[in-house]
Design brief:
mainly alpha; three-stranded antiparallel sheet
Length: 398
């Protein structure tokens, strides 16, 4: 055991944050799955928490082995992975397992394991973007040789994810924009993309209202935005999930009801995934919820610190891209729970109950730790970190 702990390298603060998030996850999932257990497992309340513990443990194993891989290898892995993820997205769109009127899941034959292909594509796209940006720094301001190789895969992947999962596509697109900004892409191209993105959103919502069959999920997206804007006050069921989350938050108060004492877990449709943060606040109060927010903030701070210490462009872009994606998704989930954002269906990373989503999150954190491990090794050896390009990392956007 001691030997195993000695082999854990990288940023120790991130490891501690992961441990705290996993503890919160186990406690919250055990509390919020009681109704689900009685409905599907004959009252066996331990079933889901044991299953969740196994998933988290396997995620930790994936994180450990990923962080032992030299981060420069992810440059080559990303190219192969992105190519493989495209047909997975197409297969999901055509014949994936349907959930809430959308094909989101693929099932692995024989072992019957289901996973969201968007999780695969999201991770590989961020890795690939870090690879391209690091290689194109000398010509990054050029439209044809610098900008196009970056934006084409972003548009293709986001477009394939969009029909089934608008929020995932939007979060991924924003993450790519941030990465392009840090990677010194010309600001006029970035602002043009933001403008085109806003126009595309307006067009999608307009077409969704005019031709409902064009986008299977279009009506759901429109309703969520309308409900968030409180246009449907006459319908008491319109904001049912949000209203139940509000009750959980208010009843939690400052200190909370204490672990396992949630009542809104019996009313919220998905208290163990989409709205698990509301259950955390109900049971642990604003103090507990604030502590979870603080953990994600510290995680992002450590990622930024790793990025600034990394002399290689690829490592810097890889760490900030994966780190921003995870923390941004967490903030969106928590904003939804407190009604600061329309309902998205995004899980809370490392806390919400899930399977492959936790594993891909663990791999992403393992990649960040791999970069920090390399910095740690080079610092101890007193040698310089290998610079992957001639330009120093993170010179500024422009």
């Amino acid at each position: 055991m001691l030997r195993f702990l000695k082999n854990i390298k990288g940023d120790k603060v991130i490891w501690v944050i992961v441990l705290f998030l996993c503890i919160f996850s186990l406690l919250a999932v055990y509390s919020s799955t009681g109704t689900l257990a009685y409905r599907k497992q004959g009252g066996n309340t331990e079933y889901y928490v044991i299953k969740h513990f196994v998933i988290l443990f396997l995620g930790f194993i994936l994180m450990y082995f990923t962080h032992r891989v030299k981060y420069t290898y992810f440059s080559q892995i990303s190219q192969v992975g992105l190519i493989l993820s495209l047909p997975l997205l197409v297969m999901t769109f055509i014949s994936g397992t349907s959930l809430n009127e959308a094909n989101r899941w693929l099932t692995v034959p024989i072992i019957n394991l289901t996973f969201q292909s968007s999780d695969v594509a999201k991770l590989f796209l961020i890795m690939y973007l870090a690879h391209v940006l690091s290689k194109k720094q000398e010509e990054i301001k050029n439209f044809r040789s610098g900008f196009l190789p970056v934006i084409v895969p972003v548009i293709v992947v986001c477009a394939l994810i969009l029909p089934a999962n608008f929020s995932t596509a939007a979060i991924l697109f924003v993450t790519c924009l941030v990465l392009m900004f840090i990677g010194r892409i010309n600001l006029k191209y970035i602002f043009s993309l933001i403008g085109l993105g806003l126009v595309a959103i307006v067009l999608i919502f307009t077409l969704g209202k005019a031709v409902p069959d064009l986008f299977p999920r279009g009506e759901t997206w429109i309703n969520r935005v309308d409900h968030f804007m409180e246009k449907d006050k006459a319908d008491p069921d319109a904001n049912y999930q949000v209203e139940q989350a509000k009750i959980a938050i208010v009843s939690g108060g400052i200190l909370g009801k204490s672990p396992g004492k949630s009542t809104q877990r019996n009313f919220l449709p998905h208290p163990y995934s989409d709205f698990i943060f509301a259950i955390i606040i109900e049971e642990y109060g604003i103090i507990g919820g604030g502590f979870v927010v603080l953990l994600y903030c510290i995680l992002f701070f450590r990622v930024v610190k790793i990025t600034t210490k990394c002399q290689g462009n690829f490592g810097a872009f890889l760490a900030i891209g994966t780190g921003f994606s995870l923390v941004f998704q967490a903030m969106i989930n928590m904003a939804v729970a407190v009604h600061l954002f329309p309902v998205t269906g995004q899980p809370l990373p490392l806390i919400s109950m899930g399977g492959t989503s936790i594993w891909f999150t663990s791999i992403a954190i393992g990649i960040i730790l791999s970069v920090s491990r390399k910095i740690e090794i080079e610092t101890k050896d007193g040698t310089e970190i290998e610079v992957l390009t001639k330009q120093p990392a993170l010179q500024g956007a422009n």
